[in-house]
Amino acid sequence: MLKLIGAVLILISTTMTGFRMARRYAERPRQIRQLRQSLSLLETDIAYGSRTLVEAFRLIGKREREPVASLFSSCVRYLETLDGASTYQCWKKAVEETWPRTAMGVPEREVMIDFGKTLGLSDRQDQLQHLRMAIANLKVEENHARDEQVRYEKMCKTLGFLAGALLVILMI
User: Fold this and answer.
1) pLDDT tens digits for 6-65?
2) Cβ atoms < 10 Å from Cβ of 47
3) Is the distance from CB of 141 to CB of 107 less than 8 angstroms?
């Protein structure tokens, strides 16, 4: 009886681990799409609005869901509290602070850090051009993330269960 309970617990835990790994593959394209949408909001605000960058980031931070909302909210906090820090330094710090809580990978992080290098340094048209480039780069990364999701999501679920079944067989 004790072996049976142990076997069931092992099987459940490895299966849940597989499902947790698969969820990261499913979350990544969704979060990239959400990030692209927030950059589109920023693009609209820069093109047609008269808000400051801090106000625009604050609005996006309130409108979006986590983890993208915390990226913009953190940047607002740093812009308001770090005296003498450039917009890029605040943006980079917010990206580095927020990124571990996302399912997004290194390529998306690099796109966002590169985008931050141009924040607030040039005229409106140049800002819009850099925003469009970042959105296009994120679109490419979203397509890669979808391909990975198709390829690996089901495999992670299956391997979690099969690894548990193997352990149970080896125990018996």
Assistant:
1) 888 989 999 999 999 888 888 999 999 999 999 998 888 888 877 788 888 888 988 989
2) 12
3) yes
Decide: 33 and 160 in contact? Cβ < 8 Å: no
Helix axes 2-48, 124-171, angle to 10 degrees: 180
Rounded CA separation 14/64 (Å): 33
CB 28 within 8 A of CB 106: no
Residue pair 73/61 in contact (Cβ under 8 Å)? The answer is yes
Give the predicted TM-score (pTM) of the model: 0.82
Helix (H/G/I), strand (E/B), else coil: 113: helix
Inter-residue contact 67 to 98 (CB < 8 Å) = yes
What number of residues does the chain have? 172
Give yes or no for a cis peptide into 29 (omega within 30° of 0).
no
